[in-house]
Amino acid sequence: MTAIGQLPHRAEILSISLSNPCVITTTEAHGFSTFSFVRLTNMNGLMPVPQHGADQLNNNRYRIVVLGDNTFKIQNPITYQDIDSTNFTPYTEGGSANLVEDTFYFYGEINNG
Questions:
Q1: Which residues are CB-neighbours of 62 under 8 A, at least 6 positions away?
Q2: CA 111 to chain centre
Q3: What is the tens place of the pLDDT at every residue in 47-102?
Q4: Rounded distance, CA 67 to CA 65, Å?
Q5: CA-only gyration radius of the chain, Å
Q6: Fewer CB under 10 Å: which end of the chain, C or N?
Q7: Do 65 and 72 meet the contact criterion of CB atoms below 8 Å apart?
Q8: pTM confidence score
């Protein structure tokens, strides 16, 4: 049997600014579009001590505005106000920005054999 499912569209995070607005830089071109939504994951490390910083952003959904091939700012997904990260825990390393898909394309096949 071959596994099937949605191919993930994610970008690994290189840095997160402590600013207003909060700007995220990815390690490579992210390919996201302005006004898309992303969920930031793996932002905190193993408990009890966070290892990656920026814990306030972890596992939350944000609307984005693309600033460049490797950068975007994040906004509240309801009010579209820029996220102010000036008082957040400093980012250290790791984490992903995962595109929240609104259209699903499934790849693979099912072997009913």
A1: 37, 38, 39, 40, 74, 75, 76, 77, 83
A2: 33
A3: 445 556 677 898 899 999 999 999 999 999 999 999 999 998 888 888 999 999 77
A4: 6
A5: 16
A6: C
A7: yes
A8: 0.80
Residue 56 φ/ψ, nearest 5 degrees? -65, -20
Q: SS3 sequence, the chain?
A: CCCCEECCCEEEEEEECCCCCCEEEECCCCCCCCCCEEEEECCCCCCCCCCCCCHHHCCCEEEEEEEECCEEEEECCCCCCECCCCCCCCCCCCCEEEECCCCCCEECCCCCC
Residue where the block lists tokens 């600013």: 19
**Rounded (10°) CA dihedral 50, 93, 21, 86:** 40
User: What size, in residues, is the chain?
Assistant: 113
